[in-house]
């Protein structure tokens, strides 16, 4: 429609009529003269509005879902981060508890033997300077570590220091084939020499070929002159097998070490030796053997009859 004087007058007239109808409708209330027209319009256009609403609602819902998807995604990401942090915390707490237990056992062994120790952590494993079974610890000369010092943990003898740097040191493990340490048998005090066998049990040559030794017996370090490389009394392991003596001057026994060399973590380097030989006092108490379960035996004695003979004989 072109913008002319007539069109403007028509627009003003339509607006005036609309206002007049609205005024009449409001004042009349339920008796409004336009109520019939409203019902007719509702009957005609109602189905159309419903159809349009049905078609539009899914689109509106989809738009709302898209609009809210960013918030939901952020919430899911937040929950995932919180779960990951919780799992990491639980894992960290478990590892912390494990390390605290290791340190506690180490301090118990050091206290029992009156060893002055410097605590350290194993930070690397593997070959070093041609040795097959070694670990690197995070303590060195700055911490008072010297060559040929005894290294132990809460279970027993770990090895000896072979190389020292300012901040780290290399430890030759007791299961290395080049490792040898003097031993003392618990109780009897019989002496021998233990040699590493890699991932097998230690081999111990008892100096007395007739020494009484059997599975379950335990050994500790005999000690070295000036306490280097070994201080006395450090637990080594438990006898698991004894080879026949065969009339020789020595006797070979196989000893399972107390220390698990493949899971080392917290260790202690003995920087101050004990004033006296602790002998067997550093060994943990032996577990008590299981008590036998008592058995009850029930014996049935036939009751005598009046005649003095068993009842079964009278029945015959």
Strand order of the largest sheet: 1-2-5-4-3-12
Secondary structure: helix percent: 25-40%
Based on DSSP secondary structure assignment, what is the total number of beta strands?
A: 12
User: What count of helical segments does DSSP give?
Assistant: 3
Straight-line N-to-C gap: 135 Å
Strand content: 15-25%
Kindly provide the radius of gyration, computed on alpha-carbon positions and rounded to a whole number of angstroms.
46 Å
**Low-pLDDT sequence parts:** 41-46
Mean pLDDT: 79
Coarse shape: elongated
Question: Pairing-aware structural class of the strands and helices?
Answer: alpha+beta
Q: What is the string of helix and strand elements?
A: HHEEEEEEEEEEEEH
**Major β-sheet profile:** 6 strands, antiparallel, barrel
Question: Explain this structure to me?
Answer:
Helix content is 34%, strand content 23%. It contains 3 helices and 12 strands. It has helices at 5-28, 35-113, 311-315; strands at 116-125, 134-137, 150-152, 157-164, 169-173, 180-185, 191-195, 202-206, 218-221, 235-242, 251-257, 266-272. The strands form 2 sheets. A 6-stranded antiparallel beta barrel has the order 1-2-5-4-3-12. Strands 6-7-8-11-10-9 form a 6-stranded antiparallel β-barrel. The longest helix has 79 residues, at 35-113. The radius of gyration is 46 Å and the shape is elongated.
């Amino acid at each position: 429609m072109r913008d002319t004087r007539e069109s403007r007058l028509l627009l003003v007239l339509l607006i005036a009529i609309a206002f007049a109808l609205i005024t009449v409708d409001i004042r009349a209330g339920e008796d409004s003269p336009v109520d019939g027209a409203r019902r007719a319009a509702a009957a005609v256009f109602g189905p159309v509005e419903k159809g349009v609403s049905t078609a539009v609602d899914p689109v509106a819902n989809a738009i709302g879902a898209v609009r809210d998807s960013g918030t939901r995604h952020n919430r899911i990401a937040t929950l995932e981060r919180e779960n990951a942090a919780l799992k990491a915390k639980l894992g960290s707490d478990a590892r912390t508890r494990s390390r605290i237990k290791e340190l506690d056992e180490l301090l118990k062994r050091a206290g029992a033997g009156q060893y002055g120790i410097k605590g350290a952590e194993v930070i690397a494993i593997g070959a070093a300077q041609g040795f097959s079974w070694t670990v690197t610890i995070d303590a060195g000369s700055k911490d008072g570590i010297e060559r040929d010092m005894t290294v132990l943990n809460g279970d027993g003898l770990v090895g000896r220091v072979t190389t020292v740097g300012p901040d780290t040191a290399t430890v030759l493990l007791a299961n290395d084939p080049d490792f040898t340490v003097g031993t003392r048998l618990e109780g009897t005090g019989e002496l021998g020499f233990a040699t590493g066998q890699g991932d097998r049990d230690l081999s111990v040559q008892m100096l007395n070929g007739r020494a009484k030794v059997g599975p379950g017996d335990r050994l500790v370090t005999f000690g070295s002159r000036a306490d280097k490389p070994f201080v006395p009394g450090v637990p080594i392991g438990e006898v698991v097998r004894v080879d026949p003596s065969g009339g020789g001057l020595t006797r070979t026994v196989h000893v399972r070490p107390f220390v698990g060399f493949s899971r080392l973590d917290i260790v202690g380097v003995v920087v101050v030796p004990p004033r006296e030989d602790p002998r067997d006092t550093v060994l943990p108490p032996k577990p008590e053997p299981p008590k036998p379960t008592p058995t009850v035996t029930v014996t049935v004695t036939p009751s005598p009859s009046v005649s003095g003979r068993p009842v079964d004989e009278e029945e015959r």
